[in-house]
Design a protein that fits this description.
Elements: E1 7-16, E2 19-29, E3 34-38, H1 45-52, E4 57-65, E5 68-69, H2 75-78, E6 83-86, H3 98-104, H4 113-126, H5 128-132, H6 143-156, E7 161-165, H7 173-188, E8 193-197, H8 200-206, E9 209-214, E10 217-222, H9 224-239
Parallel strand pairs: 3-8, 3-9, 6-7, 7-8
Antiparallel strand pairs: 1-2, 1-4, 4-5, 9-10
Helix pairs in contact: 3-6, 4-6, 6-7
Length: 240
């Protein structure tokens, strides 16, 4: 019997108000696998991530994380070690220190001080600069450093699936390279990742598989090597 995927989505339709933004979406992320959702603005990529976290009304379909059906679970239950997200725009508490922001990710582990400290050490190992800046207000960080905090806060939740929404957006080339190396290190640690990306070069460096979304639907699935060997023209047809 094959191992159950870390994340499995079948026939998902979800949206806002009366309207479905995504329709009949099916995807999976295996244990220790990294998968990207590519597509133009408005394709529905972020809505998929928000549906996984229970932040968007789901009308039909199944979302399972590990062995748990999260389709009807509230967000606070999903965030207790099932899924965590590094959202687009980081959304840090800018008047709080780096370490305070990180500890918010482990709020559900507040009674397990030993586990919290292990997770905090793992974040500082991933991003040593954050340890040096741990008492600095987040408002005084660069964009790249704030993205490190957002990823670190996600890691502090100790989730089964990590969701990253446009982790490279508005970052300098140096910061993008740091973020990519961090995602590769998370993969070495056995993490399962689902990332939304507009930068194909980032997705192909990090991921095993790429789903392409347009108009709320998944229209293709590719391997990174397909793009590197000439599939970019196919991808451009969707991305516009």
């Amino acid at each position: 019997m094959s191992e159950r995927p870390t994340l499995e989505i079948n026939s998902l339709s979800a949206g806002y108000g009366r309207f479905d933004v995504v329709r009949d979406v099916a995807l999976s992320v295996g244990k220790g696998e990294a998968v990207a959702l590519l597509g133009p603005n408005g394709a529905g990529k972020t809505t998929v991530l928000r549906a996984i976290m229970g932040l968007v009304k789901q009308r039909r379909g199944l979302i399972r994380i590990g062995g748990t059906d999260v389709s009807a679970l509230p967000t606070h239950r999903i965030a207790r070690g099932l899924a965590a997200i590094a959202p687009e725009g980081r959304r840090l508490f800018l008047d709080q220190s780096v370490e305070d922001n990180l500890l918010l990710g482990a709020l559900h582990l507040r009674h397990d001080r030993a586990r919290t400290q292990i997770l905090l050490a793992s974040v500082y190992d991933l991003f040593p600069v954050l340890k040096a800046y741990r008492q600095r207000l987040s408002s005084f960080l660069s964009g790249g450093e704030q993205q490190m905090v957002a990823i670190g806060r996600m890691l502090m939740s100790d989730p089964e699936i990590m969701l990253l929404d446009e982790p490279s957006v508005a970052l300098s080339p140096v910061a993008v390279d740091i973020v990519v190396k961090a995602m590769l290190e998370l993969r070495k640690r056995g993490a399962s990742l689902l990332l939304v990306e507009q930068r194909t070069d980032v997705a192909t460096r990090v991921c095993d598989r790429l789903y392409v979304m347009t108009h709320g639907e998944i229209v293709d699935e590719m391997k990174p090597e397909t793009i590197r060997s000439g599939g970019m023209s196919i991808l451009n047809k969707y991305l516009g």
